[in-house]
Amino acid sequence: MTATIGLQHLINGAWEDGTGSPVASSNPARPAETVAHGLQAGGPDVDRAMAAATAAKHGWARTPAHERGLVLLRAAAILEQSASALGLELAREEGKTLAEGEGEVLRAAQILRYYGNDGDRAAGSIYSSPRRGETIMVTRKPLGVIGVVTPFNFPIAIPAWKIAPALAYGNTVVWKPASTVPLLAMRLAEALQSAGLPKGVLNLLIGPGSMGNSIVDHPALDGLTFTGSTGVGRNLASKAAGRGVPVQAEMGGKNAAIVLSDADLDLAVEQVMLGAFRSSGQKCTATSRLIVADEIADDFLTELGKRAADLAVGDPTTPGINMGPVINEAARSSIQQGINTAISQGANVLAGGTPYAGDLAAGYFIAPTVLELPRDQNQDVWTQELFGPVLSVRRTGSTQEALELANDSEFGLSAALFTQDITTALSAIDEIDVGILHVNSESAGADPHVPFGGAKKSGYGPKEQGDAAKEFFTHTTTVYLRGGNNVSR
Ligand code: NAD
Questions:
Q1: Residue 213: its pLDDT value, please?
Q2: Which atom of ligand 1 is nearest to the CA of 216?
Q3: Which atom of ligand 1 is nearest to the CA of 228?
Q4: Cα 317 from Cα 358, distance rounded (Å)
């Protein structure tokens, strides 16, 4: 039996108990087991956190970027040292396997390191002037107080990739994580606070979804970065934009993998499996649609169905388990409902499809499911994000049709293409309308030093990560700089 951990909020540099209603996270593999519990932040806590972030913003913005970076580097070291313990907590609270949990903690540390070193990179640019004696300089300044609202599915890496650049570029933060994963949020805030953040620079409030609205509606807000579902993201983005507050929103996906007949099929089947079923399919970039060339479809789908059925599903903290549960009962029930609807609309089940009985029925488990859809027939499972281990499949007679099917979505986050033909790959780069395209690798990989984000309805505002983050977390001042006397002209 593992001890339940007490949850606290971070406001103005002090850890405190909440003043709102009770909140608890539970283990989705064994829902009766509470992982962490406490009281939610109360309404007045939003005002207090925003006031603390406002009071801290001038001093933090004036702190040399190198010094700000040192705090992030120390926090990265703290996460690295505790990666296995935090990885276990992540697996217990979110349901990822132990290896994925530890990997995510290390990814968060990698992101902190990337932005921790940013203070030693270029801080602006210089242009020549058409006038004698003048130089034009473009400097960057932080926005101010950033509201950070994050989803459950990467409880430490996604917050890190928002909070690290926000802080590195001199902003202060009020952060509301998803209430299903408060413990990992507390762990990231603890690492940053222990690393020496001045009081008020980072404030953590654990609360319900409605608290996201309170942050967005707050007059002290200077910028909002959100990741989560499309409906919530659009609503928050429209509120912020309506008040002239810059907003960055990363939302849903319905990501396709295309397997053409000239692909390395061993590689393709391995990568499609990873894309569809790692993290129980709960990645915004997970592969949820598969488009397979007619010539190879029978063999490919037989192998894929067999591998999906062979995945070891169970408690993600047990060695040898490939896939854990989904996050909660609401997710399990809506995903299973989506599967049932697809079957009633004519989908052919190649793997999974039915709810578990026995031990697994007690946790929020969904069987890895592969559904082949009838040709030329629109299905909800093809268009709507289920956010679980469900892969819908369509066969295709031509490369052109495959590319069109990949684009057949209101979303445009990521895609994967499997081919050994460079001409096809080059044409797909032009044709497939997504923010992230993988050629011969799964749809769900992302590195911290390059832009991340979606096209079409998947993303709104500047991209995240790498240099792209600077576009959101700073604004520019263009300085026309001349000497103070006429001699230089
Ligand atoms: P969610 O939209 O339910 O919650 C995200 C955050 O918004 C949480 O902090 C939540 O408490 C808050 N929230 C919920 N309802 C709210 C409301 N009415 N008003 C204000 N705030 C509210 O999303 P989730 O279930 O935590 O995450 C899964 C979703 O996130 C999926 O749609 C997935 O595709 C998306 N996602 C996108 C990316 C990306 O980069 N594009 C990455 C990860 C997840």
A1: 96
A2: 20
A3: 30
A4: 19
Clarify whether 102 is annotated catalytic.
no
Q: Which residues lie closer than 8 Å to 26 by C-beta, 6 or more apart?
A: 32, 33, 34, 35
- d(CA 229, ligand 1 centre) in Å: 4
Instruction: Say if 188 falls within a structural domain.
Output: yes
CA of 140 to the centre of ligand 1 (A): 30
For residue 3, is pLDDT > 80? no
Report CA(225)–ligand 1 centroid distance (Å): 11
The total number of structural domains that make up the chain: 2
> Per-residue pLDDT tens for 385-424?
999 999 999 999 999 999 999 999 999 999 999 999 999 9
The residue range of the domain holding 61 is 5-251+458-478
Question: Does 222 sit in the ligand 1 pocket, CB within 6 Å?
Answer: no
Nearest Cα residue to atom 12 of ligand 1: 209
**Domain holding 34: CATH number?**
3.40.605.10
Residue 412 Cα to ligand 1 midpoint, Å, equals 17
Do the Cβ atoms of 406 and 432 come closer than 8 Å? yes
| CA dist., res. 93 & res. 109, Å (int) | 19
- Among 111, 149, 163, which residue has the most ligand 1 atoms within 8 Å of its CB, making it the best to mutate? 149
State the Cα–Cα distance between residues 280 and 3, nearest whole angstrom.
Answer: 26
Report the number of secondary-structure helices (H) and strands (E) in the chain. 15, 23
Residues 201 and 270 in one domain: no
CB count within 10 Å of CB 206 equals 29
Q: Do residues 360 and 313 make contact, with C-beta atoms less than 8 angstroms apart? A: yes
Catalytic residue, from 94, 190, 284, 464: name it: 284
> Could you tell me the distance, in angstroms and rounded to a whole number, from the CA of residue 415 to the centre of ligand 1?
21
Q: Tell the residue nearest (CA) to atom 31 of ligand 1.
A: 229
Collapsing DSSP to helix, strand or coil, 335 comes out as helix
Measured between its terminal Cα atoms, the distance across the chain in Å is 77
* Residue at token pair 């609202």: 149
Same domain, 259 and 247: no
Bridge partners (DSSP) of residue 33 are: none
| pTM of the model as a whole | 0.97
* Residues 398 and 467 both lie in one domain: no
Which residue puts its alpha carbon closest to atom 42 of ligand 1?
A: 284
33 flagged as catalytic: no
What percent of the chain is modeled with pLDDT above 90?
Answer: 95
